[in-house]
Automatic annotation (TrEMBL):
InterPro entries named among the record's database cross-references: AB_hydrolase_fold, Mycobacterial_A85_antigen
Signal found in the keyword field: yes
The protein, known as: Esterase
Organism for this UniProt entry: Neolewinella xylanilytica
Keywords in alphabetical order: Signal
Signal sequence extent: 1-21
Length: 570
């Protein structure tokens, strides 16, 4: 090594450890794993940590490992595809040209796409959910390879050869029990939109005594949220103390797994006890080609999920399990995504639901789209400045320490999939809220690389999905059906800054005497749900136990004259 090179290395370490720009990989699609050409997103995953597979080590935080993604179309079995700096976009390094020399565990994954011929005339390729809730690293049928050790050195010129060797197996359906039943229906509305059979499902928790009271009809408690594999937070046996303890780094609690199990068992004991309101509780499955749920509203890109859930799925559940079947006797609750959905369906279907309890809701006012004002800011990623490039934060802890930025979160999504196809948070907001673009995919709210905001798309979002704006615009019409039904709860140190939008919504709602609750948890993170007596680690596990009795106490004020308020309280 010459003296100038030594001096350069002392100041620019990466210059000496960076792999050459021609670093490339050749990925084989074996004939044994495909009987026809495939479309999808090819992901090359690299990790310096061999404790688990690289596909499970991608995150927004500083502990993330590396991956690079590119589209593949009409990939014929028995042929290889090249992945290199000219074809793949990566995270947290954008280019394979920036990959440091060293030893890695390498793995490839193909996230399969299906072609949809939609009723709006557009043909799109998207990853259909296959029962896993749109988890690219766990989706049944996706092709993967066994991780292998590789070493990158400055003298390597030949491509590194990798090949798929298996497909992720199917997921077993949950079985019915005495209390928990499962329902799945073909949606006529969604099937017509997507040009193929589309289904909605739900996990149904029956009230104590349901079989012994065949003449009784019941209110419907609807918990919205991310894709539930089964009815969550429900356990009919005490925690298994022989199971090893699992530490929760988020909450700083040892044996948190046993705490979770105990809370689930406590729900069972309360549910079957003498004083709990007798209602039917459901958790909806509405995963779709863009995300693990639909946000429960109608959308140009996702189709009429709001109508399908409200007018197809819910009436069928009430028919099968003896629900009362009237709007006053249905109420909604949930946190985060589910919090937004609970508030949104109450606003958009004001007479079809009799109360909403929105915890830590996704942004309900796009003047505080987390930390971005979509109507005034020019760029989502950077603070307005003539000279500086100060990045906006995406995630913080209860002390305000930031672990990722908006740019980084969106870079990860773009590496997972272009055209809003990552199956992740920013992309699903875009897919739900945006109009359809000329290519059939959602119009971008901002450029995914630069962060430049599109004001025309922002205006469309405002008129159709900004819940505070809709309430302000239409309050005179909505007030008779909404007063007393809207309730919001959020921690003032929400990890995703969701409390900022609640402040703005509160200012309007209190000005019109909306008749509900809005409360904040001091230093509570995501997803505080309004319990002033419990830390977030506990309150987040008590949605059913909190909101079902709360609604049952309030329904007397909201129900119409002559409503049955007693027969289901045995």
């Amino acid at each position: 090594m010459t003296l100038p090179t030594r001096l350069l290395c002392s100041f620019l370490v990466l210059f000496c450890t960076r792999a050459p720009a021609q670093t490339s990989f050749s990925v084989l699609l074996p004939e044994s794993l495909a009987d026809s050409a495939l479309d999808g997103r090819l992901l090359l995953l690299l990790s310096t940590d061999d404790t688990t597979e690289p596909r499970f080590q991608i995150s927004d935080g500083p502990e993330t490992q590396l991956f690079f993604g590119q589209n593949v179309e009409n990939w014929k079995p028995g042929t290889p595809v090249t992945v290199d700096a000219s074809t793949a976009y990566g995270y947290p390094l954008e280019s394979l040209a920036d990959l440091p020399n060293g030893s890695y565990q390498a793995q490839v994954l193909l996230h399969k796409y299906e072609t949809f011929h939609r009723s709006d005339g557009h043909t799109v390729q998207l990853p259909m959910d296959r029962g896993e809730g749109q988890q690219w690293h766990r989706a049944p049928g996706n092709l993967i390879s066994t991780p292998v050790a590789i070493t990158l050195t400055g003298g390597r010129t030949a491509p590194i050869e990798l090949a798929f060797d298996s497909a992720i197996p199917e997921i077993e359906e949950p079985e019915d029990t005495e209390y928990v039943k499962h329902i799945r229906i073909r949606s006529e509305l969604l099937s017509a939109f997507w040009g193929r059979d589309m289904y909605l499902g739900a996990h149904v928790l029956l009230p104590e005594g349901w079989a012994d009271h065949p003449e009784a009809k019941y209110p419907l408690a609807i918990m919205h949220g991310h894709f539930p594999a089964d009815f969550g937070g429900w356990r009919t046996t005490p925690p298994d103390t022989t199971e090893p303890c699992a530490y929760s780094a988020r909450f700083g609690l040892d044996c948190y797994n046993r705490i979770v199990d105990q809370e689930a068992y406590d729900l069972y004991r309360a549910w079957t006890g003498p004083d709990f309101p007798r209602v039917i509780a459901i958790e909806i499955q509405h995963a779709n080609p863009y995300y693990d749920d639909s946000y429960a509203v109608n959308s140009e890109n996702l189709g009429p999920y709001g109508d399908a859930i409200t007018y197809e799925l819910i009436p069928e559940i009430e028919r099968q399990f003896r629900g009362i079947g009237e709007g006053w006797a249905r109420f909604v609750y949930g946190g985060s995504t589910g919090g937004w959905e609970a508030m949104a369906v109450q606003v958009k279907y004001p007479t079809e639901y009799g109360g909403s309890y929105a915890s830590c809701p996704d942004p309900i006012d796009f003047r505080a789209y987390t930390v971005v004002n979509l109507y005034e800011d020019a760029n989502a990623y950077y603070l307005d400045s003539e000279f500086k490039r100060t990045e906006r934060p995406a995630h913080r802890d209860s002390l305000g320490h930031v672990s990722s930025t908006l740019r980084e979160s969106n870079q990860r999504e773009l590496a997972l999939g272009d055209r809003s196809r990552s199956g992740q948070q920013w992309d699903i907001w875009e897919a739900v809220y945006s109009p359809v673009g000329p290519d059939g995919y959602p119009l971008r709210i901002w450029d995914k690389v630069s962060g430049q905001i599109n004001p025309e798309v922002a205006e469309y979002w405002r008129e159709n999905y900004d819940l505070t704006h809709i309430l302000q615009r239409d309050w005179s019409e909505l007030a008779p059906d909404l007063r007393g039904k809207l309730n919001i709860y959020v921690g003032d140190m929400d990890n995703y800054y969701l409390n900022n939008a609640v402040y703005l919504a509160e200012k309007f709602l209190r000005s019109v005497d909306f008749g509900g609750e809005i409360t904040y948890g001091d230093r509570d993170e995501h997803c505080w749900n309004g319990d002033p007596d419990q830390p977030n680690a506990i309150s987040r596990l008590r949605y059913h136990r909190m909101f079902i009795p709360k609604w049952a106490d309030k329904v007397v004020e909201l129900a119409p004259a002559g409503a049955d308020l007693t027969s289901w309280r045995y």
